[in-house]
Amino acid sequence: MATAAPQERMPALYLSHGAPPLADDPVWPGELAAWSAALPRPRAILVVSAHWEEAPLALGATRTVPLEYDFWGFPEHYYQVRYEAPGAPALAESVRKLLRAPGTPVQDVPDRGLDHGAYVPLVEMYPGADVPVLQVSMPTLNPARLMEIGRRLAPLRDEGVLIIGSGFFTHNLAALRQGGVPSWSAEFDDWGRRALEGGDVDGLLDFARKSPAGRLAHPRTEHFAPLFVTMGAADAAGELDLRRSVIDGFWMGLAKRSVQFG
């Protein structure tokens, strides 16, 4: 009897996910679609989004439930979007086994649907909603601890799981001004690009102090934090140097840099 071919190791991604109007952008949806088309077909997707902070680390729904429309003041049609991807109970069990340890509990939030940090990019990348998806929370914003979580999740990549950290490479809505790219956004994006290309892990971990305009680019860490889960998943496989920016540029003044490891 023929044996199945071994599953190709999936890359690990950090993407800038955009707000619901991303779907109306003339360029960005096509960039996300082209990115996913160039990837091996995942057996399942594990998403860590900037929009779910909860400790202890929580696993979202493992069946298809309604989305979390966690935004306000948008036109009604953005609240009509559906993304009925299959749940991923087997992946959830694997995550429990990898992360649960003495003093490190893992909880279940069975009715928690995908938030916009998860479904907005997935609508563009996997529009058929035919890949099982599991979202997990960020139990901390500490970069080093998030990298360790990513390292512990890394074996999933060899099982066909696409690990996605979903944030925004710069994110300070209060400091945006009408038109153009703010200097703090451009400066941080350039620094982040060079830090990634140079493998400056220490600088990235301490970005608030070591980057230009770090606290203007990220008044809170939540949109940069998913990068460290992705980096941890790459580091465990010795693939931090196998990285490239797949998407760059700006959207409404924010850097949409998105990175693939492996």
Written account of the structure:
The chain is α/β, with parallel strands linked by helices and about 260 residues long. The protein is built from 9 helices and 10 strands. A 6-stranded mixed beta sheet has the order 5-2-6-1-10-7, with helices on both faces. Strand 8 and strand 9 form a beta hairpin. The longest helix is centred in the C-terminal third of the chain and has 15 residues, at about 185-195. The two termini are about 30 Å apart.
Report the helical percentage: 25-40%
Strands, count: 10
- Biggest sheet record: 6 strands, mixed
The structure class reads alpha/beta
Number of helices: 9
Low-confidence stretches: 1-5
Brief characterization of the structure:
The protein has 262 residues and is an alpha/beta fold. It contains nine helices and ten strands.
